[in-house]
Design brief:
- Helix content is 46%, strand content 17%.
- The chain is an alpha/beta fold and 354 residues long.
- Helix 10 (303-319) links the parallel strand 9 and strand 10.
- Helix 4 packs across helix 5 and helix 9 packs parallel to helix 10.
- The chain is globular.
Length: 354
Amino acid sequence: MDASTSSAAARPAHAPADHPAVTRPKIGVLIANLGTPDNYDYWSMRRYLNEFLSDKRVIDYPSWKWQPILQAIVLTKRPFSSGANYKSIWNHDLGESPLMTITKAQTAKLRAACEARWGAGVQVEFCMRYGNPSTQSVVDRMVKAGCEKILFLPLYPQYAGATSATANDAFFRALMKQKRQPAARTAPEYFASPRYIDALAGSVERAFAALDDQPAKLVASYHGMPKRYLMEGDPYHCQCQKTSRLLRERLGWGPERIDTTFQSVFGPEEWLRPYTVEHVAELAKQGVKHIAVISPAFSADCIETLEEINGEIREAFEHAGGERFTYIPCLNDDDAHIAALMEEIAQGLAGWIA
């Protein structure tokens, strides 16, 4: 592909005068994250939570059983508490959630890196599985801009049905509505990628180097899921464990230095254990005074890291007797993270572009 290729639409040279304009062909890269409400008021939160909690990949109970509970109970109360949590971390200067701010920054860096490597013929965009910009709206825009091939990259290092698969579902549904359907690829999970592990290790090393007192434990806290999903074949739990092991080996630590836990428990079922909030409290009760917490499953800081980990989980540790709690931010738009994502993009585009 020529880096100077124009994206302007024009009538083909030998076409009749009434032929519609055709856009120059391009390759698209579409990154996807979980999503964010448009605001933290009641109705914005209700719309967002309704879309999220109605997803059968997230909560797979029969609709006749779950929807009455969701509509009459959960969506009556939860928008208030969730809205207050979002308000506490909101980027008030830009009028958006931190996840939106960070995803825009990631996209800008990836766009610049792709242009530097392949020229202007690669279009990089982002979408959200829930909320805006929707997957459908961005795919529509990319197709109209001339993207005849699209690589779809969910920003989830570890695969889970409730994250990677539902993002792919939304992408496939968007393709179903295209008159001229582009060729499409989905990028696989990258939980064991050496560049990703190096980026994680680098963030830990920088955080520890800035401390005068070294944490006795590093807690790797991953988003949880019902244990039943693991038993039904979801590989998420195993991939989380492998990420923690590879991170520990890259840091040169023994197995006692890092613990793998799971957060964000919801509903009556048993979820993957140990639960982060309980585990950090137990560490404090055992006399561990200083811990650090990292979130390897999140590509960007969000409500689960900024409010849950650095709020609720920190409080659980301190209330149980812990003295120092160090939160290590997500990789966000760190250059090492962008390099790791660029490697996934390059592999995904193999054969499509030189």
